[in-house]
Design goal:
The protein has 141 residues and is mainly alpha-helical. The protein has helices at residues 13-41, 62-69, 89-112, 116-134. Helix 1 runs antiparallel to helix 3 (89-112) and helix 3 runs antiparallel to helix 4 (116-134). The relative contact order is 0.14.
Length: 141
C-alpha cells in the first residue's frame, strides 16, 4: 500500500509539549535523586534509621518495618524530609508527578485545536492521578 504524499507521521504540538515537559521533569527528578542520594550516602543529613541499625530491618516485611520504625504510610514522608533517608522521596515525587504537569499543559492546546474529547480526557487523567496520589481513595492495603 503506497502512502499518499503529505501523510507522514508527525508529532502534533501537544505531543511535542508533553514530551518536552516530560524530558525536563525526568532530568530534574534524576538530578534530585542523585543529589539527595549523595546527601544521604555522605552523611550530610542525619538518617531517620541510623546506619548501624539498618540491618535489623532487612529481614522485615514492609508492614513490620513501618510499625517497628514508627513510620506512617501515605504522605507522612513529607514531614520527614529533614532526614537523609527520606529526602530522596522528593526526587521520586517529582518523577511521579511530572505526568500530571504534562497533561495539564496540553489541555489548552487541545481546546485551541477543538479537540474537546481529548481535552476532557487529559483533564480527567489529571483528576484521577491527583486523587490516587492524595490517598483519598484507599483501596486494599
Amino acid at each position: 500500500m503506497a502512502d499518499k504524499p503529505g501523510t507522514g507521521l508527525e508529532a502534533g504540538p501537544e505531543q511535542i509539549l508533553y514530551a518536552s515537559i516530560l524530558e525536563k521533569g525526568m532530568y530534574l527528578g534524576l538530578l534530585i535523586l542523585l543529589v539527595t542520594f549523595a546527601v544521604y550516602a555522605l552523611g550530610i543529613m542525619k538518617p531517620y534509621i541510623p546506619l548501624d541499625q539498618i540491618s535489623q530491618y532487612w529481614s522485615m516485611n514492609v508492614h513490620e518495618y513501618l510499625e517497628h520504625a514508627h513510620i506512617k504510610t501515605g504522605w507522612s514522608w513529607v514531614g520527614m524530609i529533614n532526614y537523609g533517608d527520606f529526602i530522596n522521596f522528593v526526587g521520586v515525587a517529582v518523577l511521579a508527578g511530572v505526568t500530571v504537569i504534562c497533561y495539564l499543559a496540553i489541555v489548552p492546546i487541545l481546546l485551541k485545536n477543538d479537540d474537546k474529547v481529548y481535552a476532557v480526557l487529559a483533564f480527567l487523567e489529571v483528576v484521577v492521578l491527583a486523587l490516587a496520589a492524595s490517598g483519598l481513595l484507599k483501596v486494599g492495603h
